[in-house]
Amino acid sequence: MGKFLSWGLVGILSFITVPFSYAERLKDIASVQGIRSNQLIGYGLVVGLNGTGDKAPFTNQTFTNMMNQFGITLPPGVDPKSKNVAAVTVSAELPAFAKPGQTLDITVASIGNASSLRGGTLLMTPLRGADNNVYAVAQGHVISSGFGGGGADGTNVTVGVPSVARIPNGASVERTVPSGFHQGDTLTFNLHTPDFTTAKRVAERVNELLGDGVAQALDAVSVRVRAPRDPNQRVSFMSILENLDVEMAEVAAKVVINSRTGTIVIGKNVTVSPAAVTHGSLTVSITENYRPAAGAGFNNGETQVQGGLPKSDVAIQQQNGQMFKFAPGVTLDEIVRAVNQVGAPPTDLMAILEALKQAGALKADLIVI
After folding, report:
1. pLDDT at residue 6 in the model
2. What is the pTM of this model?
3. Burial class of residue 174, CB neighbours in 10 A (0-12, 13-18, 19+)
C-alpha cells in the first residue's frame, strides 16, 4: 500500500500538515460508500386516549386481532366502538453500525381520523426494513406537542399537529444491518456535492499524505482509497482520513429563485455581460359601471339600474421607469447595489433576472424552485 504500509499509522500522524485556508474536513463534504442509515416502519395501536381515537374499520379489526392474541374472543359482528384507540404508523431511522440493545427515537402518526394522540401509549410494534425483516421493536408513552379544544357551538382551535407524536428512545434495536465496511481492500468516498475539481483535490490530498496511487478520483463524486484489511487499523485509518482538510472548489455560478416566498439567492461568482435594463410598473384598473336602459326611472334621486347595460372603464397608469447599465464583468456587489437603487420588489427582481438570462447577459444558472 505504498508509504502507508511502511510507515504505519504513527508515521502518518506525524505528516499531517497545517489545514488549507477555507478548507473543509473530508467527513463534512463526503460519506463512505455503503455506510448509511436505513428507514424502518411499522403499524401499531395507540391506546389510552381520552376519547380522541379513530373510528376506522381497520382499527377495529386490529383491535379485535390483538384481543384474540390475549385469549379474548369478541362475538362475530360486534363493534367494540372504542374511542380510546388509534391506528398509527411508526417510523424510525436505523443508523449505520447500530447494535442490538441500542435505542432509537421514533415518530408515531395517526392513519385514521383520530383527532389527537396526546396522552396515549404505543403498544409493542415491530419495525421492519425494506427487506421485510424486523430490526427493532417500539413501545412507550407518546409525546405530542400539538393540542386542540372546542366549544359547545362547534368552534375548534388546534395548535400544532396533535395527530403526530414522538417517543424518545422508544424503540430497541433487535438486529444488526450487515455492513461492507470491513470488506475489500478499498474504501470509496462519495462527495455530497459532485465536483470534478473537489474530487481531484481529495485524491491529491490523500496521496500527499499516504503516497502516490493510494487514492484515485473515479468521477465527479467518487474517490477510491486503498485501506488496510485489519479492522482496528481500518478504523484508525478512517479516523485520519475523515479529519483530513481539503480545499473546496468554488461552486458554479447560480441564481436560485423561490417564486412562492419571493426569496432570491445570488451566488458568489455570478456576473453579467454588458446590458441595459429598464424597470417600470403598470397599474391596470378595471371597474364595472352601469348606464340606465331606456325607461329606467329615478327613486329619491338615485338611478334605477334595472335593465341597465354594463359599461367597463379601463385605466392604465405607468410609473416612470428607471434604467441602469451593467458594465463588463460586473460582480454580485454591483448587481445588488444597482437593483437596490431601482427599488424593485422581489417579484420585479425575478422578472429582471429572468430577462437577463434570456438575453444571455446573466452568466449563471437560473434555478426556480
Report:
1. 37
2. 0.67
3. middle
